[in-house]
Amino acid sequence: MQRCPQRWIGKPVRRREDERFLTASATFAGDIDLTGQLHLRIVRSTQAHARIAGIDVEEARSQPGVRLVLTGEDLTGIGTVPLEEAGYHEIYPNLEAFTQPVLAVDRVRYVGQPVAAVFADDPYLAEDAAELVSVDYEPLPVLLDPVSSLESEIDLFPGYGNEGARIEKAYGDVDGAFAEAAHVVCHEYTVGRHSGVPMETRNFVVQPDPSRDILYIWGTVHVHGNMRVLSRILGMPETSLRMRHVEIGGNFGVKGDVFPEYVVAAWAARRLRRPVKWVEDRQEHMVATSHAREQVHRMGLALNGAGEILAMRDEIFHNHGAFFRQTEPLVSDITTGIVFGPYRVPSYEATLHAVFTNKTPLAAYRAPGRYESTFARERLLDLAAAAVGISPVEIRRRNLLRAKDLPWTPGIDIVHEPFHFDSGDVVDHFDRALSEAGWDEWVTEAAALRAEGRYVGVGFGVLMDKGGLGLYETGSVEVSPVGRVRVLTGASSVGQGVETVLAQIVAEQLQLDPQLVDVEHSDTELVPDGIGSWSSRSTVLAGGAARMAAIEVVEKAKRLASTMLEVDEADLQLADGAVTVRGADSRLSLFEIAGRWDAYSARLADDQPGLRADAVYRNNLMNYPYGVTLVQLEVDPETGGHEFLRFFTTAETGRIINPMTTRGQIIGAAVQGIGGALYEEFTYEDDGQPTATSFMDYLLPAALEMPDVDIFTTEDAPSPDNPLGAKGLGEVGIIAVGAAVASAFDDALGDGSHTDRLPLRPEDIFMRCQLTHKPRS
Amino acid sequence: MQRCPQRWIGKPVRRREDERFLTASATFAGDIDLTGQLHLRIVRSTQAHARIAGIDVEEARSQPGVRLVLTGEDLTGIGTVPLEEAGYHEIYPNLEAFTQPVLAVDRVRYVGQPVAAVFADDPYLAEDAAELVSVDYEPLPVLLDPVSSLESEIDLFPGYGNEGARIEKAYGDVDGAFAEAAHVVCHEYTVGRHSGVPMETRNFVVQPDPSRDILYIWGTVHVHGNMRVLSRILGMPETSLRMRHVEIGGNFGVKGDVFPEYVVAAWAARRLRRPVKWVEDRQEHMVATSHAREQVHRMGLALNGAGEILAMRDEIFHNHGAFFRQTEPLVSDITTGIVFGPYRVPSYEATLHAVFTNKTPLAAYRAPGRYESTFARERLLDLAAAAVGISPVEIRRRNLLRAKDLPWTPGIDIVHEPFHFDSGDVVDHFDRALSEAGWDEWVTEAAALRAEGRYVGVGFGVLMDKGGLGLYETGSVEVSPVGRVRVLTGASSVGQGVETVLAQIVAEQLQLDPQLVDVEHSDTELVPDGIGSWSSRSTVLAGGAARMAAIEVVEKAKRLASTMLEVDEADLQLADGAVTVRGADSRLSLFEIAGRWDAYSARLADDQPGLRADAVYRNNLMNYPYGVTLVQLEVDPETGGHEFLRFFTTAETGRIINPMTTRGQIIGAAVQGIGGALYEEFTYEDDGQPTATSFMDYLLPAALEMPDVDIFTTEDAPSPDNPLGAKGLGEVGIIAVGAAVASAFDDALGDGSHTDRLPLRPEDIFMRCQLTHKPRS
Fold this sequence. Notes:
Two copies of one chain form a homodimer. By secondary structure, chain A is α+β, with helices and mostly antiparallel strands. Chain A has three domains: 18-26 and 470-618, 2-Layer Sandwich (Aldehyde Oxidoreductase, domain 4), CATH 3.30.365; 35-140 and 199-250 and 256-288, Aldehyde oxidase/xanthine dehydrogenase, a/b hammerhead (Aldehyde Oxidoreductase, domain 3, Alpha-Beta Complex), CATH 3.90.1170.50; 295-468 and 621-772, Aldehyde Oxidoreductase, domain 4 (2-Layer Sandwich), CATH 3.30.365. Chain A is 29% helix and 24% strand. In chain A, a hairpin with a 5-residue loop joins strand 23 (578-581) and strand 24. The longest helix of chain A is centred in the last third of the chain and has 28 residues, at 538-565. The interface between A and B is large, with 57 and 58 residues. Chains A, B: GO terms for molecular function: iron ion binding; oxidoreductase activity. Chains A, B: Residues 23-141 form the Aldehyde oxidase/xanthine dehydrogenase a/b hammerhead domain. Chains A, B: InterPro entries: Ald_Oxase/Xan_DH_a/b, Ald_Oxase/Xan_DH_a/b_sf, Ald_Oxase/xanthine_DH-like, AldOxase/xan_DH_MoCoBD1, AldOxase/xan_DH_MoCoBD2, AldOxase/xan_DH_Mopterin-bd_sf. Chains A, B: This is Xanthine dehydrogenase molybdenum binding subunit apoprotein.
């Protein structure tokens, strides 16, 4: 019996995290200053591909205040930065060959690659000395594009070739379907290279314990995974690498690796027995923190006369850049397994070429594989609609998954797990979304305005996300006699509001105010095992673990109270954070119970002291939120500028824990989706020199570029695969933005062009306007 | 089947700890310097007893660099420093009334009591400003002596009186025995006030987490107990108080409390959000760190005509000083329950008056209650021998416990546990000890030398110690794939060699080299629960826990190897740190097994990752080592100086884990025993002003004063109460030193005096020589 059903779950509880940020008491790694610390400056490759004929560090080494200068030669013993998951080897057989050395040895493979490391008493000395390191490069031919790299004679990894892996996923008779189709449409789509670009660059501080072989580390996002990887490369037990809590100023997937810079900092701190601090500047960040996205999709659709999809085929060229990083095998795998989206695709074949080039290595970035493939699929569906002669809305209606199609288990694996879409009704959601947005009026209005000579268009994209992954998460709940509840979680707070959400979930179980609940995370000393926050997994997995632990705490409280109150356990119930006796006045608050069960009393009874439970929640089933993003915009033909008139994103979310944080996630994702669609791109000269290494050239949307985002959510299909019924909502808002924006631009310009490349940059739009616009005068 | 019986246990493995000290990489709290730290200086009472009429802090507060000045008024909300153990209340009903405020309010009770606290940017500013704090004292009458305090009309704690508790322990018909005795001897013995005086004074560094309500703390000895006490007084959850490892430069029982200085430092750091460092200077240490020992024993013995003890009676006046501190209730309880020593005492009555005075509060100091009561008992036995007309050796032979007397359970509790002496043969050990020492020759030789006019004497004391207490200890063993084994223990390293001993115990179970085993402790982040190192408990309790965890690790390794090697578990055995298959070549080292059982594999199988076990070892049975200390010395009658000619200590030790660390413990204890017998005393003027506040006046024995200590141990009676068969050996070497030295001086001087007060200071000896010595010329 639950006395207060849903007292906190589903409520817009204010974010616990914000007080720190609003009162400026939040501490980032860059704020950590340790007595005696050295500052690290990395010497980076100025060449995209070259042999290192020699490195002269003598002048740098002799500068006053310089304590150490390292090159690749000094670190050959420790090898390359390994990937965490052994399971990746099943996807990429020669994974080790493609991992990155800490400092380059013999050869550099991208501009920005760490070549040497200078440690000095202050950051300015370090930077000045780094400029005195002289590297003798012998340039080698450069490969930048994944398609041409795959075809090239130039062998970037001799003995292994330029294709790190080829991933193929298929079901059904694709060839047969294409042979008998009434309509076949094919097109090539490209999503350019951009990335998460968090406000905080990478920052890393490492302090050796002066008397023990232990390193204290501030600045990693995925503390447990990074602990495991650093353990392996440094040869130190995992518990000797103690990752400490700091705030993370954004991650979005690109900042979670063990980076070469972290390894060299840790190695030197351990050797010198002095703290080392590394603060990345923005220019370094733009060439050396992981990039993302760059993919080419050659996609085909076979349809029958009624516009129903018979088959989908996609050949994907994924530009890994120069090396593998942590999450990349996942990105390739997910991309290959999710191109079909929330559609009833009877046969399917996707082949992904994981190709190396001479660019910065890639990482996962918010909705990896989904943003790219959704752009391609939704654009191609618009073409297919035209070929069939029906509207873009109608072709979705005829192909989106309906309740009666579920469970949809076409027989394909995605990250070792069968794709299993098991609840909801996508067509129904789609129809309600259009109706809620007033889509028909948008269309009518745009047409009317175009008739007035204005360049107004509409477009939409349908999306399916996947949340979850990572098998398990840890969670503990501890009631302190001083009147606080502590939740320890393997998740991390990267802006998504996980502290608030977990406080709500635990408060719900303990039936007390979430303001009494503190959530601790990203601290391997308090939380020895965990997986972390990525892949929209925290609410489901960390929430599941915290919930389990809270339930166990309530059980223990009742067991103890039964003895303390001398009452049968069956007569006890929980109400308002206290165990009460049915039909009597006796009560013991959870805090009182915890206080009475002190170390001595508990151990005497062969029990654990206090009121605490540790849980591991296992769930490797992904969940699949879906929705639509709809856009109405106007282009200024004189300048190529644009204005969003309407921006509407919908999602079937499963059970929402906190509508306020959900809203924040969707708006934040929309910003980044717009960035990837219209502004952000890492551009290169032919010789591999990056040309967007500052915010002068890498355009980032800011508040002025942002539309008002309207949001519509349905909770019709709570996930049947977790007790909260929740789905991962961290990425859903970004997925269809590229497709919707491209469609709306094509509609607004009415020039017959089919946008097949993102970003659609301001200069591209301006050029199209120049070609189509007839000035009124 | 154990392939390598006792490969490491019992071997003189070199101390793991020493490398840090010898290479100067050991870090003490005083070495911790944090960016932005403030320095604390305590303003201490200059009066032994006074009303505070007013405190003027304005001038101090206005000094440049001073950030905060606190007085008791600012801290009234947090109350007094609580004691940890709820169980103490059973011994001392009004405990709370006698605990110490963090800063004095209204009244000061001893010279050195904290009155105000100054926080400044550097320690010199803080000290200068502290001198500007002006306190207006109105002196009150002073009580210094426990006997007169008990009788005084002056009420130190109005409403409670000066007797904090009266503890009575008795069995048998004592009155009857005294009435019918052939011989009755009675005498009053006094042991003066001295203390542990560790090389490192108290040092305490506290750092608030800048974004969370968490304090990181360096410098506490008993990290878990201190965490629990600080949690209560600060109102913070225990896991918000994160005690970090530093080396401890000696404790000996006197430095383990939560002291008022720690609380004020933590309180201010939390409020100011800045790190606070406190380094105690030696003069502060001598008045403000806990003192120890001061007791008066009024003891009587009833014997029959054969010199067999019929009854023992003792009235003890224990001078608590001004307040209760953590371990004091234990000291009083243990004293009352252990006066009889290893003798067959058929009836017994001891009454202890726990009396408050205007001196520094007491704490436990190495062998509390045993050093004092053994001095009294052994001296009185010497008197009894004379009364009966037998030798001091003979009276022991007739009364010490024999194998046939065991188990000796006279029906008395000591710290909530029945006194239970269950193994050995004290007479046998005593005889072997005398024989091993060559006691008869010592006696003959001394007599011969005295006949030559030299002042040579012999003396001995028989001792019984008790090891253990504290109910349980925690221990974890973790095998890291990188080739190290980590032991996590609730014990702490305070110089006793626990890291080495635990490494041996675990290496024995895992059958690998103890050099591969790292022991981590005193770190609440790595070890969330524990009790700590005091009461000679670490080998038995922490060793028991580490052994349990190691056994579980071996079991888990076999279970995993059985699957990995596809072999029945029954066919597996452990050899040289690897699981091997009987009759086959297959083997997996523990490190390989740990590496294969990574987070993903283990969680997939619903198991904990890695190769680790966490154990809680419970054992509240104390163990009772026993032995003799024998001394031969010569006094220089001209100066009162002396020279130890022979110093011999024996012990029945149970199973010894490491004879080298055992030897170190016994020698270290002997030094401190000599200090307490001949040098160390906190002396006072009548108005309560301490007169021994530096090493000019408080005499500490150094290398020059030390004899060569010969040691003889027997391992005839392994403790039946723990699987190691071990006993606590940290205190055994100090216990009988006072008795033996006093006896030898009396023998050497031959002046008929009976030394009944310790220390026997150089000036006392000189005065006695002046009275007795006839210069030869």
